[in-house]
Each structure stands twice: as structure tokens, then as C-alpha cells.
Amino acid sequence: MAAAKKELQLQLETQVNALQKFQKDIAKNHQVRRQYTIQHGENEMVQKELELLNDDANVFKLIGPVLVKQDLVEAKTNVNKRISYITAELKRLDATLKTLEESQAAKRDEVLRLQQRIQGGQPGKGRA
């Protein structure tokens, strides 16, 4: 009986550790997604500003401490590519997050089942 209880405790500990890893991965995903969302908003703002410019307007790009003149069409193309890339990354992060959340829910269910098995094998212990 004691060996079975120890085995259940070890299984529970393993599952709890796996659950905590999923929680950390989800938190990291949220952090990265937040950064991409900020970048997406900034790039959309730049895109709107570039659309307001005349075709002969001077556009400069900050590279390190230097402003470098850039063609308006090239600037618009670069911003559109960045927005496309960020949008694709956000979709990828959303898909990853969905998978992580599903895995987390499954692990949580497994932890609860193990806890119930452990508690079920301990008559006389009160439920608080």
C-alpha cells in the first residue's frame, strides 16, 4: 500500500512539474505576442504616415545614429513586408498558444485525477 502511494506521489510530482512548464511556456508566449502586437501597431502607424506623403517627399531611415535617405516606394514596401511578417508571427503564436492551453488543460485534469486517487486511498483525512 505504501509503495503504491509513493508511486502515485511521484507521478503527481512529475505531472505538476509538467503543468508548471506549460504555464511558463504560456506566459512566455504572451510576452512575445505582446511585443509583436506593439511592433504591429507601430508599423501600421508608419504605414499610414507614408500614405499621406507626396510621391516626391523625402523619407529618411534611422540606421544607428545616422539618418539615411530612402526612396518612398522602398520605404512603403519595407513597412508592408514587416507588417506581413509580424501578422504571420502573431498567427503562429496564436496557434502555439492554443496547443499549449489544450495541453495544459489535459495536464491539469491528470493532476486532479492523481490527487483524487491519492486522497481516495487515504480514508480518515478530512477535506478542508
Question: What secondary-structure arrangement, pairings included, does this model have?
Answer:
Layout: H1 2-52, E1 59-63, E2 66-70, H2 72-120
Antiparallel strand pairs: 1-2
- CA(first)-CA(last) distance: 24 Å
Q: How many structural domains does the protein architecture include?
A: 1
Report mean pLDDT, rounded to a whole number: 91
Helix count, DSSP H or I runs of 4 or more residues: 2
Pattern of helices and strands: HEEH
Class based on secondary structure composition and strand pairing:
mainly alpha
Number of strands: 2
Instruction: Name the CATH class.
Output: Mainly Alpha
Coiled coil: 90-117
Family: Belongs to the prefoldin subunit beta family.
GO biological process, one term: response to cold
Keywords: Chaperone, Coiled coil
Please describe what this structure looks like:
With 128 residues, this protein is mainly alpha-helical. The protein has a single domain, classed as Orthogonal Bundle (Helix Hairpins). Helix content is 78%, strand content 8%. It contains two helices and two strands, in the order H-E-E-H. It has helices at residues 2-52, 72-120, and strands at residues 59-63, 66-70. Strands 1-2 form a two-stranded antiparallel ribbon. Strand 1 and strand 2 (66-70) form a beta hairpin. The longest helix is centred in the N-terminal third of the chain and has 51 residues, at 2-52. It is rod-shaped, with a radius of gyration of 26 Å. Mean pLDDT is 91; it is low at 123-128.
